């Protein structure tokens, strides 16, 4: 079972997030990475229905047409957790980044190799890690029975990230505002590829 | 082959560290303390970021690196036993429990030991050595 995937750039920004098998309440498909303003996130918390059909959204739509895309993004990112989980995706991605960075340095200290950290597991999930030489970090969470997914993460990097994001002249190579990889081709390609894997929903 | 054993108290302080075999970098005692503190924090966070809904995850249990595997066993009182072993080493769990037994017998039952403080006990060292010899580590 594959749960979710994060991509971090070398400045600690989560530039891509998507999840599978997480049974969210809202029907929106894979959401993009983090968005910048956390104050408005609290205000959007009740809007669990997700899509732009809710009345609150049409009001926003009328008044602030330019801001519409960001608010609907916020709704889709905050509504993906059940009521028991109170941390939102932005905070969660920061925690994940902190964990992988600490563990990477931990392993570096002990083994002396640059690319030593492969994965860790707890009692109910396993986190796989792959870092490119340029400092991009690919993280994928699965259940604990899955073997190493590093080849898969490498595939995603070489076949999809490089092809659709790096080779796209319009995509920014730094993401200071936290807008992330907003690329339909990349998103659908990753989604399709993950769904072909035998471990996807086993 | 077992490289080393760390014992971290419930506050994140390193109270015991011993290398049994060569293979890992040697660090100063200060750096070991920092590593233990880092691990303590990471262990707490890993139980919070579980992607599985409505279930309580434990903290980190196994960490895989290219040259070693780290196993962590947290006791009910919050003390953490860390064993760093070769990647191919089988069945570390039993060794972790045995280490906990030895810890209970020779550290906790020692009336002169102050809880949460660094462990300086000859008998504990001796029995650990014996255990490591037994398993051929």
TrEMBL record, chain A:
- Annotated Gene Ontology cellular component terms: endoplasmic reticulum; Golgi apparatus; TRAPP complex
Where are stretches of biased composition, namely Low complexity? 27-40
List the InterPro entries hit by this protein, alphabetically: Longin-like_dom_sf (IPR011012), TRAPPC (IPR007233)
Question: Chief subcellular site?
Answer: endoplasmic reticulum
Please list the coiled coil stretches: none
- The answer to whether keyword Repeat applies is no
Its family remark reads:
Belongs to the TRAPP small subunits family. BET5 subfamily.
Q: How does it assemble?
A: Part of the multisubunit transport protein particle (TRAPP) complex.
Q: Which PANTHER family match?
A: TRAFFICKING PROTEIN PARTICLE COMPLEX SUBUNIT, TRAFFICKING PROTEIN PARTICLE COMPLEX SUBUNIT 1
Q: What is this protein called?
A: Trafficking protein particle complex subunit
Gene source species: Diversispora epigaea
Automatic annotation (TrEMBL), chain B:
GO cellular component, alphabetical, reads: endoplasmic reticulum; Golgi apparatus; TRAPP complex
Keyword Transport: yes or no?
Answer: yes
Organism, scientific name? Diversispora epigaea
Which named protein is this? Trafficking protein particle complex subunit
Where is it predominantly found?
endoplasmic reticulum
Name the family. Answer: Belongs to the TRAPP small subunits family. TRAPPC4 subfamily.
Keywords, ordered alphabetically: Endoplasmic reticulum, ER-Golgi transport, Golgi apparatus, Transport
Report quaternary structure and partners. Part of the multisubunit transport protein particle (TRAPP) complex.
GO biological process annotations for this chain's record? endoplasmic reticulum to Golgi vesicle-mediated transport
Note the InterPro entries from the entry.
Answer: Longin-like_dom_sf, TRAPPC
Q: Where in the cell is it found?
A: Endoplasmic reticulum; Golgi apparatus, cis-Golgi network; Golgi apparatus
Asked if the record carries the keyword Endoplasmic reticulum, the reply is yes
């Amino acid at each position: 079972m594959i749960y979710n995937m994060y991509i971090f750039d070398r400045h600690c920004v989560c530039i891509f997030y998507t999840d599978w098998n997480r049974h969210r309440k809202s029907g929106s498909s894979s959401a993009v990475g983090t968005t910048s303003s956390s104050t408005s996130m609290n205000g959007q918390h009740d809007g669990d229905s997700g899509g732009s059909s809710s009345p609150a959204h049409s009001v926003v739509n009328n008044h602030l047409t330019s801001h519409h895309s960001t608010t609907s993004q916020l709704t889709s990112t905050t509504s993906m957790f059940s009521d028991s989980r109170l941390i939102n995706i932005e905070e969660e991605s920061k925690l994940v980044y902190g964990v992988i960075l600490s563990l990477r340095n931990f392993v570096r200290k002990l083994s002396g190799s640059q690319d030593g950290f492969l994965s860790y597991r707890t009692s109910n999930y396993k986190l796989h890690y792959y870092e490119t030489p340029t400092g991009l970090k690919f993280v994928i969470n699965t259940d604990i029975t899955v073997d190493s997914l590093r080849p898969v993460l490498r595939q995603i990097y070489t076949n999809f990230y490089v092809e659709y994001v790096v080779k796209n002249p319009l995509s920014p190579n730094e993401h200071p505002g936290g807008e992330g990889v907003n690329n339909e081709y990349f998103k659908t390609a990753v989604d399709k590829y993950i769904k072909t894997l035998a471990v996807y929903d086993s | 082959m077992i490289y080393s054993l760390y014992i971290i108290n419930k506050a994140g302080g390193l109270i015991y560290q011993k290398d049994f075999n060569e293979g890992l970098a040697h660090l100063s005692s200060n750096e070991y303390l920092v590593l233990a503190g880092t691990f303590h924090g990471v262990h707490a966070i890993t139980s919070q970021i579980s992607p599985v809904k409505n279930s309580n995850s434990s903290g980190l249990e196994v960490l895989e690196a290219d040259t070693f595997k780290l196993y962590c066993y947290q006791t009910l009182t919050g003390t953490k036993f860390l064993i760093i072993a070769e990647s191919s080493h089988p069945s570390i769990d039993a060794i972790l429990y045995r280490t906990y037994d030895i810890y209970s017998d020779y550290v906790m039952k020692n009336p002169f030991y102050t809880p949460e403080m660094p462990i300086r006990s000859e008998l504990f060292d001796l029995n650990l050595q014996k255990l490591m010899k037994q398993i051929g580590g």
